Request: fold
Amino acid sequence: MRAVFGVRWGRLFLVLACLSVVPMPRAMAFGDAAGVELVSLDLGQGVQEARSVTERLAWEVRKRSSVEPLLEPGRARLDKASLFRSPFLYWRGDDEFPPLSDEAIEGLRKYVHRGGFILIDDATAGGEGFDRAVRRELLRAFPAMPLKPISRDHTIYRSFYLLDRPVGRVEGPAYLEGVTYGDRIAIVYSRHDLGGALQRDSLGAWSQAVVPGGEGQRERAIRLGVNLVLYALCTDYKDDQVHAPFIMRRRGAGR
Amino acid sequence: MDGWQWQLGIAGGALTAWVLGVALLVLWLFELRSMRGESDRKRRATLGALGGLGILCVYLLSLQVTLVRETFEEIAGGTVLLLDNSRSMTLSGARGSRADAVRSLIAEWQDDGRVNPMVYSFGSSTRGVAWDGLAASYRPTDDTTNLREALDHALGKDAGSEIGSVVVVTDGADSRFRADSLALDAESPAVHAIIVGGDDPLDDQAVVSLRADATAYVGVPAIIRANVRAVGALRDRELRVQLWHESRIEQEVVAVLDADGRAIVSFEVVPNRVGRALYRVLIPELREDEVPANNIRAALLRVGRERLRALLVAGRPSWDVRFLRDFLKRDGSVDLVSFFILRAASDLTAAPTNELALIPFPTDELFREHLGSFDVVIFQNFDYAPYEMATYLPRIHDYVQRGGSFVMIGGDRSFAEGRYAGTPLEAILPVKIGAPGALEGSFRAEVSKRLSRHPIVALGPDPALTRQAWKSLPALRGANRIAGVKDGAQVLLHHPRARLDGRKLPILVVGEAGRGRSAALMVDASWRWRFAADDVTVGSDEYELFWDRMVRWLTRDPLLEPARISTDRERYGIGAKIDVSGLLRDQRYEPMKNAAAELSIEPSEGDAPAAAVETDEDGQIRAELSAPTESGAYEVVASVEGEEVAREVFLVEEGGDELADLEAVPDELRAVAERSGGRSFLGVSDVPPLSELASTTRRAAGLVSKQPLSTPWFIFLTIAVLGATWVLRRRWGRR
Reply:
């Protein structure tokens, strides 16, 4: 009886022990509106790869910060109303694409005008096709707001982590580019293949090597991704007076 | 010949007269020529002269010269007595009180008894008063003098009957009055001006007026400008002007007067706390100053913050947080301090502290040191427990009770999920929190029918359009369940289907907490109203309107209060008439129709209300009150059924506007008298009995005419001249 009792309690303990390592939701469900969804742009090709990036980015953001992104974010087209289910849009590409339809351009404008944030990620890391097409379409949508380099002291580099420069799967240029709308940056364009540094395969291993900085650079790329999500959510919050003395002190200590 | 005009009666007028004159002249010349053969020069001259005289007489007769004059008749008219009822008539100069002088004058006139005038008292308005007993009842109390209005009233049709003369008894202390502003003509009655005190000018230094912004801001300099003046013997004396705040002197300057004895003095003040700040500008009293009452004036500054200070604390970043912060940050009238929890204890940042841009939650700084400096505190999906904030909750409770405001916005860390049940924050919220529980699914919030005029949810100009606007807004998803709504709280928005205790589940509830206000919004997706695809249903304007009104209602923006009253002026003299008007609406923002309201003045001089009034169909009230008898800052308080609904502040000054500028205008009054054929008197000592001033009036009585040459004598003269000429010509051998 003791053995049976012991086996029973032992099995129960084993079950509880297994349950204890299963990640419990940190918050109760409150409808899906509250969740932060990092939506991928669907331009007809490469969207699955983009979704794998946003899933990893959502996971990293959830693990590292108090933000609760949906771990299985969806995708959206520029010419569909579903685009407006989230103000965060991830646009990844590795090749030139044909001109967007007028409806898509109008959707792009409306999205930014109403408060949306777009992260454009050039997966070619130096190729010209995607870059040329992106610049062409942004000029169509926002002729009066050209892409401009984002300065090193912008809030994006201190929205969560303190960063010196952008990196991704490749080191890339020492700056991000952005379209400023009002007093916020509404579109950030990275030519560092940020998503490439975040992608994992089905077994959980990193999909691509990060060059030239290796794993240290990968970590900085992940931090940049987290910062970009936090910037989309908080905009210039870190410019508030309350933060200034702390950040100045740490920047000073780091140098 | 004064007033006579000549006319010609001959047919054809002046033209005929000219033609005839020339013809007769030619005839006379021919006659002279015919006499050239006459050798006797005397005969020739006599015949020429007689012929010319005869032709002239004929000419004048044929012209029919007529003299015309307009005539007037004098008719007996009524007498109007205009009596200055302003407080400046109470002043005393070297020869005694002006009011006493007027009383004596009236008594004399009444003893005379020959004239019974129509009497009008004038000040801020012109109104009829009884002649009988006037000497005893004359008590000047009005706060302004308006000579122009009084004279227009007397001279115009308003007087109601023909009048022969107007006697105005005044000290002339109306610097705006100009004689040429009156429409006087030949038929106007004579205006007699009796300028009381005109022979006894005052020696006075005065603060004529103050100009200051009605609203000032903490820490921001505000300017108070004082218009000062000296008259009489004091014009040559040093004029010191002091600024007092509370019971201490803050600044003093010596005014440099211009040629008219006037100067403008500016004081810069920097209010250091919110509320009402009473400043007084004072001229130290000189022994010779005959009107010390006008040496002090007060300015009441409503001191607010230049911008509303809002504290936004969020449990974690979300779109709802992002859009609300962006809105508050963009609003130039809001000074926003926000703090978001970016990392919880369980988060793995994978970085040392010096690589993070994170700062400790400054709870002590926000909730102990600076809490009182905020106008509104917003908890957005924020749970207090992980941050050891339990000790600060009573402080937030007290802050709201003392007049602060608080909003809790829903989410999975708010209300019951944030473990606020039973805490001091539940005590100030308008809802009962109860056990945790959330509602999932999509819904469109509906506005409560009875409260659709409430400014927070009144998105349209009327209830129907408001309901339509809410129906068209993008849907929300998920809501916090609450245990109930507290007594007196107002459910502004509710769920369209879900229920709580048989009623629709509240989504937005507002209420009062002590002297403060609070709101509970049980959703975390109002950002959806700002960010949507559909051009028709996107509610970006509505989102901003909703949150703007929310903040302003919580912080008691006067424009959003259900009931408002106002006074016709900000400052009054002692005992002066105060016109109060206002709009009274109940807490549902519905007009209080035909409601009995009481108006009282605080601090009060007695227990009785100052006035009892009834609202009209639109909730409007109008009443007349008397200013208190002591100078100071007061409030008119409107109450309905014993409950205060609105209040408005005003000042009472011993001097006030009426005594501030005592510059008389005797020259202007003299000019009026001269133009109208009346008389003017400086002082009352030489004023005759009223019967002497009660002159008749002139009226046009038609035209009189005469023809001075159409007389028998002139005709006889003409015939005689012509006859003599004819006789002499025959005798002297001519034809």
